[in-house]
C-alpha cells in the first residue's frame, strides 16, 4: 500500500469523525482541528483532479465530495461566529463555554 493511499484513507476517516462531531453539535477546538483535514482533503483532490487528466471523472467525484465537506464546515463556522458576535449569552446557552476550565466569574472551575 502506498503512502498516498494510506494518507487518503486517514483523511477520509478524519472527515467521517468531523461529520460525527457536527452531528453531535460539538463546536469546540477539536472541530476546528478536524476542519484543517477537510481543507487539506479539498486541496489533495484538487491537485489529484488536475494531475491525472485521463481519470478526470473518477477524481472529480472525490473532489466534489471534499467541496461539500468544506462548505459544510464554512457554514457551521459562520453560524457559530455570528451567534457569538451578536449575542454572547445565546452562544453560551447553545454552545457552552468556550473554555470549559474557567467559570463565569473568572475563577478556575473545580
Helix fraction, binned, reads: over 70%
Alpha carbon gyration radius: 18 Å
Total number of β-strand segments? 0
End-to-end Cα distance, whole Å, is 48 Å
Global shape: elongated
Mean of residue pLDDT values: 64
Number of helices: 4
- Name the structural class: mainly alpha
How do the SSEs run, as a string of H and E?
Answer: HHHH
Q: How would a crystallographer describe the biggest sheet?
A: none
Strand content: under 5%
How many individual domains? 1
- Low-confidence spans: pLDDT under 50, at least 5 residues? none
Keywords: Membrane, Transmembrane, Transmembrane helix
Transmembrane segments: 6-24, 29-46, 52-85
Sequence-ordered SSE layout with sheet pairings:
Layout (H helix, E strand, L loop, with lengths): L2 H21 L5 H23 L4 H31 L1 H8 L15
Helix pairs in contact: 1-2, 2-3, 3-4
How would you briefly describe this protein structure?
This protein is an all-alpha fold and 110 residues long. It has helices spanning 3-23, 29-51, 56-86, 88-95.
Written overview of the protein:
Keywords: Membrane, Transmembrane, Transmembrane helix. The chain crosses the membrane at residues 6-24, 29-46, 52-85. By secondary structure, the chain is mainly alpha-helical. The chain has one domain (3-91). The chain has 4 helices and no strands. It has helices spanning 3-23, 29-51, 56-86, 88-95. Helix 3 crosses helix 4. It is elongated. The mean pLDDT is 64.
Question: What brief labels describe this structure?
Answer:
110 residues; mainly alpha; 4 helices; 0% strand
Amino acid at each position: 500500500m502506498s503512502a498516498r493511499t494510506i494518507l487518503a484513507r486517514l483523511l477520509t476517516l478524519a472527515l467521517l469523525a468531523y461529520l460525527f462531531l457536527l452531528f453531535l453539535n460539538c463546536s469546540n477546538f477539536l472541530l476546528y482541528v478536524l476542519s484543517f483535514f477537510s481543507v487539506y482533503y479539498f486541496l489533495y483532490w484538487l491537485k489529484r483532479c488536475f494531475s491525472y487528466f485521463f481519470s478526470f471523472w473518477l477524481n472529480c467525484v472525490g473532489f466534489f465530495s471534499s467541496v461539500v465537506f468544506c462548505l459544510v464546515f464554512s457554514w457551521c463556522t459562520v453560524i457559530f461566529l455570528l451567534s457569538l458576535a451578536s449575542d454572547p449569552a445565546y452562544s453560551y446557552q447553545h454552545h457552552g463555554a468556550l473554555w470549559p476550565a474557567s467559570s463565569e466569574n473568572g475563577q478556575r472551575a473545580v
